[in-house]
């Protein structure tokens, strides 16, 4: 009969024998968490010789089980050195473990207890063996392991003892042993059920979080692309309105031309439309890279905050007027790690919001400040400061509620979708986003990167 280690699928489970199904349950219990088996090996390797030394402290030492202790140490060493096994032996590790559990727990303790003629110590040792079997097996395998171990120990005792007798006090504890196994199996089953339900709840939470993240990403994308696409549409509309039809009398035929108030107006409009379209394409490209981890640089890439700000100011489609509003101040640079694309999207979102707030202001200014920590090179902050219209206290309160609200809970109709995206990214790297604003005086958004950095 071929019994291979590994869990069975639903289809193969129907064709498997009862023994294969039983063993598959044992493997399924340990293949994703083998530490319990490893602890069994450690106890066999370390505790067995120490336990043997206790016999020298007794007035009546009892049965000399040195050979059992030596075998315990050999079995324990074999379990602990699993990684050193030859490759052809490794598929049979769980078969060996099954035998080890039978040998080290019910067989050894019961055999030693019978040889010692029972007594309180023997009863306690047997309960200890039952406890280990309950913890390291499911209830079906617990029954099989206990039956095989007790039967083998009793058989060997009868065959080897000069005058085998069953200790009365030991046999009288049989109902206690059965109750211990039954209670242990029931309580363990209850804990397993609770663990399964907790795991399912976490899976549901993760699924809901993924759906919420997808909704936020779609909302962010629509929110970010709406303004540049509207600009493209208006720019193209302006170009179309300047088109003048050609005259039929011209030698070249009906050739259209553009009416310009100043030389180069048409080209400037087309260049502005192209810049906005390229920006939209860059946003979509960076979102795709972040979503599918298609980064142009290695996952562990590092870059400086000043480099990130420079890349943003170079790539963002500022108009000639908007560039005159711009100022970059580097107090102290600091290092950043993770997805450069995500942080570029964050700064791009804050820039767009600031430019919207600066429309029509008397003295518009947009300032990027980089201020690193003097003691730690990967700690610092990036500030985006504008002298725009600002945010009222009620709006700031609403915004704070939206940014701290759990994922999946709606905000103010998408009005703060861009800032919510920025807050999620900063939260993911264990940083923070804070907003200071006074209506009529401008807004300061601070991206704080903490010492407990998490790479995103």
Q: Keywords, please?
A:
456 residues, alpha+beta, disordered N terminus, 2 domains, Heat Shock Protein 90, 9 strands
Topology as a string of helices (H) and strands (E): HHHHHHHHHEEHEHHEEHEEHHEE
The CATH fourth-level homologous superfamily of the largest domain: Histidine kinase-like ATPase, C-terminal domain
**Spatial gap, N to C terminus:** 50 Å
Average predicted local confidence, pLDDT: 79
Taken from the alpha-carbon principal axes, the silhouette is: elongated
Count of distinct structural domains: 2
CATH class of the largest domain: Alpha Beta
Number of strands: 9
CATH architecture of the largest domain: 2-Layer Sandwich
Percent in strands: 5-15%
Could you describe the largest sheet, including whether it forms a barrel? 5 strands, mixed
Task: Give me the number of helical elements.
Answer: 15
Backbone structural class: alpha+beta
Give the fraction of residues assigned to helices.
55-70%
Regions with little confidence, pLDDT below 50 for 5+ residues: 1-5, 294-300, 406-415
Describe the structure.
The protein has 456 residues and is α+β, with helices and mostly antiparallel strands. It has 2 domains: 10-172, no CATH class; 208-243 and 261-449, Heat Shock Protein 90 (2-Layer Sandwich), CATH 3.30.565.10. Helix content is 60%, strand content 10%. It contains 15 helices and 9 strands. It has helices at 10-15, 18-30, 35-53, 66-80, 93-115, 120-135, 139-160, 168-172, 174-241, 265-292, 305-315, 320-325, 340-358, 393-404, 417-428; strands at 243-244, 257-258, 302-304, 326-332, 335-337, 366-372, 380-386, 432-438, 442-449. The strands form 3 sheets. It has a 5-stranded mixed β-sheet. It has a two-stranded antiparallel ribbon with strand order 1-2. A hairpin with a 7-residue loop joins strand 6 and strand 7. The longest helix has 68 residues, at 174-241. The protein is elongated. The two termini are 50 Å apart. Residues 1-5, 294-300 and 406-415 have low confidence and may be disordered.
